[in-house]
Amino acid sequence: MIGVFGARTGAEELAALAPSVRDGWMGMGPQVAAFEAALGDRLGAPLVMVDSGSNALHAAVAALGLPPGSDVLVPSWTWIACANAVALAGHRPVFVDVEEATQNVTAELCAAVLTPRAAAIMVVHYAGKPVDVGAVAALGLPVLEDAAHAIDSALDGRACGTLGAAGIYSFDAVKNLATPDGGAVTAQDPDVLERVRSLRYCGLERSGFAASSNGGAAGRWWETAHTAPFPRMLPNDVSASIGLAQLDRLAANQARRAAIWAHYQRELGELGWLITPEDPGPRERHSWFTYFVRVTDGRRDALAHALLGAGIYTTMRYPPLHRMPAFGAQAQRLPVSERLAETGLNLPLHPALTDAEVDQVVTAVQGF
Question: Which pLDDT tens digit goes with each residue over 93-131?
């Protein structure tokens, strides 16, 4: 079966794991610090690693210090963790529709649903295509970027995830930078970043070991301040070690993703019943995380089943959040998100695909 998502790993990742396994310490340690520094250098911004992208969202929303019970604008067309993070931090998600061509929110779409209690706006760089964060920020609220798809994306030369008040990244097993699981938070305000650092260990300011290693041995290093009740979100050296190896191969993986994207665009772009995704504009660098097409003649489900029968797995990311019962299955109509849910399909795109597998996907779609 050809997978819709995947990663390319090998001997380099195995070698990177060896020190943590050999030394008997696989929790948060020197490899986490090394990964934070290396990725921060690449992005041009400091960051704090946590155990998942979903928890990075939760930590970022909490660390922004919004007034209790605030409204936070969230795209309806995104992963459910975005809305969960808002709700878990004690706020209310207000859902925003997206552009049909890019699957991204715009400043105009956000302005249309602003409420008196709105305190922040979350944007998602879908598939790695950058949102115009500056235009959204001009609405006067802090912007939280979900750059889970956008580890290599940039707008006007600045890395996505570093454009707003805060940003998050995801390093799960199918992301562009793949690890068993992991996430990270960036922020413009160093106090927000320090807040994330103190929250990720159950709200404890620091561990006893860290205190003893930083000149605290003269006192009771095992005593530490509890800043707030919070879930444990500590990263580990296993994921960080693999992340360091993945950073070394990121450029090659991105080149492979870009080549597959370009091949799909050439081969599928002239099908009258299929709309292919929008390429990056002149101000943008893309991450090519997923290849999202729209079937215009009502046969989306039939295409998915035909491809599955041909040994090609596809999916549809994401079900619109405003329809989710957990968020009240709101009566609002967000027509583009709803239409995408009935017409969209994610085709396989990842660096482990062979040329033969890419050709198999193209042939199957063309044949349909």
Answer: 999 999 999 999 999 999 999 999 999 999 999 999 999
pLDDT digits (tens, 9 = 90+) for 70-92: 999 999 999 999 999 999 999 99
> CA-CA distances (angstroms) from residue 119 to 21, 73, 140, 286, 294?
44, 8, 9, 29, 34
Residue 289 has pLDDT above 90, yes or no: yes
Which residues, including other chains, have CB under 8 Å from residue 363's CB and lie 6 or more apart?
Answer: none
Same domain (yes/no): 285, 173: no
Burial status of residue 30 (CB atoms within 10 A of its CB: 0-12, 13-18, 19 or more): middle
Question: What SS3 state is found at 20?
Answer: helix
- Residue 328, by phi and psi: left (phi above 0), alpha (psi -120 to 50) or beta? left
Q: What is the DSSP secondary structure assignment for residue 366, as one 8-state letter?
A: H
Residue 17 one-letter amino acid = L
| Count of the separate structural domains present in the chain | 2
Tokens 């849910």, located at residue: 341
Choose, from 125, 129, 175, 317, the residue flagged as catalytic.
175
* Residue 129 known to be catalytic: no
Q: CATH number of the domain at 220, please.
A: 3.40.640.10
Dump pLDDT digits (tens) for 171-214: 999 999 999 999 999 999 999 999 999 999 998 877 766 766 76
Parallel/antiparallel/unpaired status of strands 143-146 and 166-170: parallel
Residue 299's contacts (CB-CB under 8 Å, 6 or more residues apart) are 273, 368
**C-alpha 49: how far from its chain's center?**
14
What is the reported pLDDT for 255? 98
Last residue of a domain, one of 246, 271, 300: 246
- Amino acid at position 79, single letter: W
3-state secondary structure of 95: strand
Question: How far is 113 from 108, CA to CA, in rounded Å?
Answer: 9
- What is the predicted pLDDT for the residue at 231? 95
Given a contact cutoff of 8 angstroms between Cβ atoms, the answer to whether 84 and 78 are in contact is: no
Token digits of residue 159 = 């890395």
Q: What ranges in the chain are assigned the alpha helix state H? A: 11-23, 30-43, 53-63, 80-88, 107-111, 133-137, 190-199, 208-213, 237-268, 300-309, 335-343, 355-367
What's the domain range around 299? Answer: 251-367
Unique residue bearing structure tokens 């090519």: 288
